[in-house]
Write the structure tokens for this entry.
Amino acid sequence: MSNRPREKQFSFYSIQSVLGRGNYQLSIINYQLLKLYLWKLISLIQNGLSAEPEIAKIVGDDRVIGGVCNLASNKVIFGYIHHIDYGLIRIGRYARNYQFAEITNKMREIYQDFESAGVPVNLTEYLLLERWKKLVWNIPYNSLSVILDARTDEIMGDANTRNLVTEIMQEVLEGAKSCQCQIPDSYIQKMLDHTNKLRPYLTSMKIDYERRRPLEIEGIIGNPLRIASEAGVKLPKIGMLYQQLKFLDARNRQNFSS
Amino acid sequence: MSNRPREKQFSFYSIQSVLGRGNYQLSIINYQLLKLYLWKLISLIQNGLSAEPEIAKIVGDDRVIGGVCNLASNKVIFGYIHHIDYGLIRIGRYARNYQFAEITNKMREIYQDFESAGVPVNLTEYLLLERWKKLVWNIPYNSLSVILDARTDEIMGDANTRNLVTEIMQEVLEGAKSCQCQIPDSYIQKMLDHTNKLRPYLTSMKIDYERRRPLEIEGIIGNPLRIASEAGVKLPKIGMLYQQLKFLDARNRQNFSS
């Protein structure tokens, strides 16, 4: 797959898979609308945890698939995605409580659909693991980029915040473990190395913050915290990120509306 | 004692007691100079922990007293203090490793000196406890005021940051306990109530930050963290405040000099 930016029209399955990409708060409303169209599958290609069970309540467990993107893209208009840089999409079928879910023929059709549109995807039988793996990156960088008003290269360029990122990632691994998702410690170094290679980058949460849009705090931070807490696992640093972000988000939008 | 602002000339003991008020980094230099004057006592009326042993290395244990202020004041010129609002000063003799130190006649003379200048003071035999008690307020509010760019009333007006302040205070109590300083849990509520009554207030660390001066991170946060850590007590939230502040302080002064 070339890294050159491009725009491409997607086929039917792809459209319904990708159009939902957006922030968590909005997606609940979108999917209520989608239900009216009686589409066969709803694909949640987005960050964070616990959107699938919410949507499954509306459309049924067997109609939800989830995915995580490691790519940079923007939605241009309905059916058009502007692909900016690098990447891969991992998708998996949702099963109640994020259980292990075998790859079905329907999943293989979707896979083919993406491939024929020139978009590489991986299929996974364990969506929950993929969600937690993405959180290893998203929780520290999204949070700290807003709290410290910093780009990823600034965060990585300072020994204190670099250590803090590492410690937060270790907490994410503990959270994953509380859900029986084993992520090896080596994955942390992989994410740090990956980030060091990124061009100076504003995270999606930072962009939302600058535009005074609601931050995806619950999906990315609140839900993982609650799930770990229900399993008896405390994540004190992530808990503190949550509190700091809730304060900043509330003030950010209050100032805007006043 | 009236709460009216005033200016007053201090007597000899008082002058040497108060002139050192300033930030931790500068004080080491100041006290090197003071040594040349062969003054009898050096009083460290300032925030934070572990300045006394540093100064005692220079002038000797028996020449150091420490104090904490619960008042608002500014130094105008040498020998003049502008008292702005409310307050009390607590002072105690330093003994090696912050041991319990009985009140001596010299301490009573200093007490009289303050009193006769209209400044109420309390004498304490346990300076270390007073230092930790002051940290219960200083650590959460100084840190969060800089990290979240917030006044005390904003921090107290949001449920998330109010809870965070409380949790940080609980960690300070654990840190104090690691030094055999027992601060009752009820002290936390007292500090929260006190802060709710304050007029909207910029902390001293926030003022330093806005003026791009070095922040008192080591005295107020780094030293308490290290002392607790040496006693085997981890304070994860305070550790995270430290890392966030170190990042912000470095960037703040780097941008200024470039």
Notes: Chain A touches chain B at residues 147-148, 150, 154-155, 158, 160-161, 163-164, 167, 236-237, 240, 242-244, 246-248, 250-251 (CB under 8 Å). Residues 93 and 107 of chain A are 7 Å apart (CA to CA). Residues 236-257 of chain A form the longest helix (22 residues).
